[in-house]
Design goal:
Oligomer: single chain
Helix content: under 10%
Largest sheet: 6 strands, antiparallel, barrel
Amino acid sequence: MSGLSAGLLDRDIVLQTAATVQSDSGEVTFDWDRASNRRLWAQWFAKGTRETFRFQREGSYIDGVFRVYEITPRPTPDNSRILFEGRVFDLQGVTELGRGEGFDLAVVAHGEAP
């Protein structure tokens, strides 16, 4: 793994994958109460200095990327989210790094920190 350094993965996150539930009418929904949880180490990249300042001061809006090593199966934005420091981060997109060296998980969190 030439692209990622394990020493930089200093954020303890939880990747939640919601259980898929199908109603009698055939509609598929996600059940977060029965979600599977996977603990990962990640590196955090704030989208910009404004977001970093707001996160530290206000904590109302956070936009950035968690970088992680290989995840199997690959998470998808529709049924995955990240828990970090008591906040829920909605997964916006997944970008593969190199040839499966790792992934950048674009996230956004809204609302006040607990």
